[in-house]
Amino acid sequence: MKRRFLLLLLVACGCVALTLPADAYLKFGIDLGPRTIVLRWGSQPVRYFVSDRLSVPGVNLTQFEAALTRAFATWEAVGTSAIRFQRVGVTGARPIEDDGLTTLGFESRPELERVLGQTSFTVDETTGTIVEVDVFFNATFPWSVAEAGEAGRFDLESIAVHEIGHLVGLGHSAIGETELQPGGGRRVIGAKAVMFPIAFGPRNIVGRQLQTDDIAGVSDIYPDGDFNRRTGSISGRVTKNGQGFFGAHIVAYNLRTRQLVGNFTLNERGEYVIAGVDPGPCLVRVEPLDDGDIESFFDDSIDVDLDFQVTYRDRLAVVPEGGNVGDVDVAVRPK
Asked: 200-210 pLDDT, tens per residue?
């Protein structure tokens, strides 16, 4: 059986509605009976097509393909990940069709007034294997492929890096900071992950560069080399009034390497695991997911607890190389 899902990258206000529950700190998963299967491509390289059906001012087909090639190369350059891609060719197919082709292209969607891009998945529900992914960039917005960015236009390469992160199976990262705007919505102040769900404004090109949280995520799904031996993990529970709860955001900050990697509690027991953490002493912080729309990270049918204070664990978690430091439990207080 196959099922199709979609994700949206928004600008200026709010974020995407994630139509399947996220599993682990960045990964997508589906429940198969008592197990949760992480979504991933079953074979390499991931083969994709570029749609020439629609173009936008300032970006011709050659420039579009070049920007996509650079964005795919950014993910391939992660030395601890085995993910690889192959451009098959150009197609006239729309990048929203359930046709068995993984396609990237432009679509004119003026009704999606805050949506820069959308990624849709077709998944084999029996195995968790990704069968097809389509990505469209909203032609309603002004786009740029300028090397240093362009005033008043969104950087295509940066948004493509984000959408390709979804294509490989990554969800949204909550490592970032926003502020509420007087007229509603949020503005991004800073983000420590390309996979943060709200885009920076026009001309900004910082999204071309992967952060440690992005690298840890793709390496966890497609590990290569000595990734599992070189890094470690942190696990434990988050509780309030003695009870675990769903949706707390946990961040591990390595004091030696300054690496920042995040995760969520993903069941009612408040359990979490943060993988891909550099060995050494880590500060562990727990915070409510109140710096964005909950629907950016979890299905809106899931009850996410936001009624607690930001809390730091009273002891450092010393992560072993190739191992796990467990029982890193944190008790939080209601607001």
From this structure: 889 999 999 99
**Contact between 318 and 325 (Cβ < 8 Å):** yes
Best CA proximity match to 207, nearest among 125, 287, 149, 120: 149
Distance CA 277, CA 285 (A): 14
Q: What is the fold, at CATH topology level, of the domain defined by 226-332?
A: Immunoglobulin-like (2.60.40)
Which candidate, 144, 138, 120, places its Cα nearest to that of 130? 120
- Predicted confidence (pLDDT) per residue in 115-173, tens digit: 899 999 888 878 888 999 999 999 999 999 999 999 999 999 999 999 999 999 998 88
The domain locations on the chain are 2-219, 226-332
At a CB cut-off of 8 Å and minimum separation 6, what does 245 contact?
Answer: 238, 239, 265, 268, 270, 305
Helices marked H in 152-245: 156-168, 212-221, 227-230
CATH class of 2-219: alpha beta
DSSP state of 236: E
Retrieve residue 298's tokens: 């979890």
Q: Is the overall model pTM greater than 0.85, yes or no?
A: no
Name the strand (E) or helix (H) holding 246.
none
| pLDDT level of residue 99 (50, 70, 90 thresholds) | very high
| Secondary structure class of 110 (helix, strand, coil) | coil
Percentage of residues in the chain having pLDDT higher than 90: 61
State the pairing for strand pair 27-32/22-23: antiparallel
